[in-house]
Amino acid sequence: MNTLRRLPLISTALALCSSAFAVNAASPTPVPDAANVAPQPLAFPTAEGYGRFAKGGRGGRVIAVTNLNDSGPGSLRAAVEAEGPRTVVFDVSGRIELQSRLIVRKNNSELTIAGQTAPGIGICLSNYNFGVLGASDVIIRYIRVRPGNTSGMTLDGMGLASADNAIIDHCSISWTLDESFSSRGAKNITLQRTLISEALNAAGHKKYPPGKQHGYAASIGGDIGSFHHNLLAHCAGRNWSMAGGLSKPDNKYAGRLDIRNNVVYNWARRATDGGAHEVNFVNNYYKPGAATKYFYALNAQYGGFPGSQRYYFSGNVMPGHFGVDDQEKGRTATTERGGQLPTEYSPWSDTPFFVSHVKTQTAEEAYTNVLADVGCNFPALDPHDQRILVETRDGTYKYSGSTTGLPGLPDSEKDVGGWDEYPVVHRPDGWDTDRDGMPDAWETANGLNPNDPSDGAKVRDGTHYTHLEVYLNSLVGEKI
């Protein structure tokens, strides 16, 4: 197991219970009373936040990715675009060069993508983006998405737009032309332990003139959306952009976001900005780099629409600029055009708006923890992410933009050497005789029948998880 594998952050109480993607925000929904919610299993033992109950493909069929083709039998696209509850496992590693966007739509709901099952150093998707649009109960883990500037289109990286009950965990996203991640109009979602890096800056965004800088990390919405223990590195702006949107039909401010325990490194002139109805902004670590010229972590931007936008800002740190005892130095509020706020408008709250359902650390603890366990680090970190982690830890950069010259902010994937080599490795014959997603050796060791394709979907005694889920979770050190 990779030396940067984590010590699982498992909350005992929770472990047993409890652009193509952009749309308008949904109307706010009430936060459920925990006392009235029936016990249910987490998506996986370390799932946290408001997407933690996504069931994915639990109990459904298993589809194996057996080749690196863009489409056709055995491809990832065929598995994603199938219907009905299903878990996708990988019998091959390497780079999948997509020929078009790969989207999980509403009729593709109840899906688990188990990237941790790949051999070699795992899977990387290139050329186009991969995201969710309107689907529910989706779990995506241990996948890399690095589109690059090859398609002639302005692309995001990953997304959870209009998703409901969905979680992305331990993924890596880089070299996008629009935002690396987007989740407008979503409900009950989590983005956790994901490494977003090197959004391409002056890369030819189709909505802007040549040379316009647009190296943006993420535009996030959700009701409620949880964003925790992520690393955003070498992205010029929108680290994060709060895109709460407006509710329908009354056009009031919408979006409830929980942003905590994230690490942000080497932005330029924009850190976190935008707006949403209610935001918990807690214990985040902002580390300036060589390109950084702006030293507020949060700029709450008021647009003058009906309703309120309010923010709980607590425990955040920017070394050399503010700490936990002077939070007012780390935040500001303006109109969307940078002007003065109306005198009657007060954006700051002294108390959080809702519980986080995240095991929260101090900002300093989160900095150490995130750098030890983030991104697609199983089966192994690729050289790109290894470099990003070293540069974040050391406060350095290796490359500059070929157009802008800005340190650490590439304008093309070519500025940093392009894609790594991803060895093509296939599982051997006899690895999984009954094709239930669990290797024969593991089934035998766990008292299952390697010739019975039905046992993977059965619930393991004393747990809420199927045997297949127990296997998938065990790969990354998660015990039931």
TrEMBL record:
Keyword line: Glycoprotein, Metal-binding, Signal
Signal peptide extent: 1-22
Disordered as annotated region, ranges: 323-342
GO terms assigned for molecular function: metal ion binding
Name used for this protein in its record: Pectate lyase
Organism, as annotated: Nibricoccus aquaticus
